Every structure is written in C-alpha cells, then in structure tokens.
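pls design
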C-alpha cells in the first residue's frame, strides 16, 4: 500500500477534478502491475495497473489507495474492471466519500466474490486525498498557504522590494510544491508588485498548474507576465461584481477565465472564492500570498496546511508583514496550527504546519 500511495502522489496537480489514486497488482508476492491516475483524470489507476498486468491479473491482489469507482462516467467503473480482470482480492486504503461511490464499489466487488479488505494505511490515504474529499464534502479545494519571510516576519521592505528574501534552494522547493497542486493563487497586490509568472520552472514539468489571481476590481497590469502567457497557461481571475466592463473584456480577450465572486466587507469573500474554485474542479490550491489574502483565508478558517520559509535576515517594523490585519483582541482568537516538520533548506528554514485539533 505504501507503494500504491507513492504512485498516487505522481498524479497530484495533474488529474483534477479526479482524485490522485495509486494501484499495485500483486501475484504470488510479485508486482505485476502498477498505475496511477493519469493527467486529466483518465485513465484511472486501476485501469493502468491492470493493463500492465495483462492476463497475469487472474487470481491476483489489487492494492488501491481509494475505493474503486462504481458509476459509469466517461469510462466504465473500475470495480467492474477489477472483476473482469479476474482479481480475487482487493486491499483498499479508504472509502470514497463521493455519494456516487461511497461503499458501492466495495459492495460490487464483494457481490462478485472478491475478498475486500479496507482501512490499510487509511490515515496516510486520507491526507493524500484530503483535497478531493474537501471538494466532495464541502465544495472547496484544500488550501496550502505558503509564506516566505525574514526572521522578523516581513515579506518585503517598506519600498516593496521582496526579491529575494529566501535562497535558491527554498525557491526550488516552492516550485516542487506548486507542481503538486492544481492551482497557484495570489492576491492582486502580489501580482502587481512582483509581476510573477506563477509557473513551475527548471523541474521538467510539462503541465503547468492553473494560475489564480484574486482581484476585486481587476486592476491588474495588462502587459504583465500573466497577461502575456494567458493563452498558453490557464489564468483564472476572481473578481467582484463591480469590476470595470472594459477590463473584463480586455482580460477575456487575452484568454483569461473570469470568475465573479461575492464581496464581504471591502474584499472578495474568501469562502465564496473557494466555492467557485471547487465548482470549477480544483481540489488542491497553493496560495503564495500576499498578506491581505493570507489574512482573509486565515480569518475564515480556510487554510488546511501552512508552509513557512524563514530567512536569516531582519527587515524591521517598517517592512510589509507576511499576514495582514486579523483584528484580533485576544490570543485565543488566533488561528492555530500544529507543527508537522522542520528542516533546513540551503540557508533557510522550512516549517510545515497543519490544522490544530479542536
């Protein structure tokens, strides 16, 4: 199952809106087939593993990281494919929460006489499929918030200079994280100040993540890197109902997808933004700030994973804080996270956090 989970992670960032599943087929202690969900969501992991196993699948065991699908979509159900291939035992990590499946895949297998065992490495599988489950159950993607800052928590100097606070090793690690998410998201302030491309570079990646920019008024430069590459790499712009009509037309003409979102106070409603992204199929979003967007996500309890890179330099109180105003008066109101890991990357420290248990 550990191998199946590692195979499934190869599909992260590539196969949305489908889950990134892994499958291993074993006969007499020998691996005869491996597969993972392919780019675009098809073929499914079981199909790929069975194709590799061929006729040897007769009497074999299939290890799969998520309950095999039981419904007819663009392809036949994987549960039936396992039956037709002659698989006699299925070991699954976790049940699918999609109501179209949710136990029905296991039931189909059992009715066909296949021995089914569930719950193997379920905790690890739940982490790997967290984005898919969130989209299915809550309608929104998983959000990883990544922030790179100075030792004193600043992301730019008072003049706005921010390149580069962290070193090349940390930036390369960030690109690897981008590649494992369906989309990279930033606020309008970051898009204007940094003119980012938000792409994965120097890692041999063919399929780029979708770029998402949150801009209530669509006041973004039309000659930016994002604008110039909008026809080649998907660019989605989340905007408010009062965005200028001419700007809407201009960005649409450049190839951007426009996503109208509700407003909360003076900002776009973070919850509605994520609901809209979930409806569009995203399961995993990698947010890289800036401070106002980070604060909005944290204030609305929408951050599932927190990744920080801390550099060994001080910028001072006049610098730009990595998290905008939260309006807190008591410590117990502060968003809390649980430390998962720390490591040194080059001359910087990476620290990873997840939601604290409530």
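designed seq:
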């Amino acid at each position: 199952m550990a191998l199946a989970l590692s195979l499934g992670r190869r599909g992260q960032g590539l196969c949305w809106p489908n889950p990134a599943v892994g499958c291993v087929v074993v006969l007499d202690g020998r691996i005869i087939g491996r597969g993972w969900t392919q780019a675009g969501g098809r073929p499914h992991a079981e199909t790929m593993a069975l194709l590799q196993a061929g006729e040897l699948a007769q009497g074999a065991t299939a290890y799969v990281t998520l309950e095999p699908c039981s419904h007819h979509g663009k392809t036949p159900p994987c549960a039936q494919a396992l039956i037709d291939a002659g698989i006699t035992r299925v070991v699954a990590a976790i049940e699918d929460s999609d109501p179209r499946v949710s136990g029905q895949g296991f039931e189909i297998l059992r009715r066909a006489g296949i021995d089914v065992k569930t719950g193997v490495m379920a905790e690890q599988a739940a982490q790997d499929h967290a984005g898919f489950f969130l989209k299915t159950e809550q309608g929104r993607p998983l959000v990883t918030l990544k922030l790179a800052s100075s030792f004193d928590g600043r992301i730019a100097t008072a003049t706005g200079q921010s390149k580069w606070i962290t070193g090349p090793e940390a930036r390369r690690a960030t690109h690897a994280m981008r590649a494992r998410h369906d989309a990279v998201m930033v606020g309008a302030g970051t898009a204007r100040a940094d003119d980012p491309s938000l792409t994965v570079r120097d890692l041999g990646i063919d399929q780029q993540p979708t770029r998402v920019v949150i801009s209530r008024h669509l006041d973004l430069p039309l000659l930016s890197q994002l604008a110039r590459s909008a026809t080649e790499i998907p660019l989605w712009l989340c905007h408010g109902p009062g965005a200028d009509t001419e700007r809407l037309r201009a960005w649409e003409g450049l190839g951007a997808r426009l996503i109208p979102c509700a407003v909360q106070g003076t900002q776009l409603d973070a919850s509605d933004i994520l609901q809209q992204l979930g409806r569009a199929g995203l399961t995993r979003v990698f947010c890289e700030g800036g401070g106002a967007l980070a604060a909005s996500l944290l204030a609305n309890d929408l951050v599932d994973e927190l990744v920080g890179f801390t550099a060994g330099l001080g910028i001072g109180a006049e610098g730009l804080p990595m998290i905008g105003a939260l309006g807190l008066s008591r410590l117990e109101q502060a968003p809390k996270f649980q430390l998962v890991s720390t490591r040194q990357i080059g001359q910087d420290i990476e620290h990873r956090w997840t939601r604290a248990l409530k």
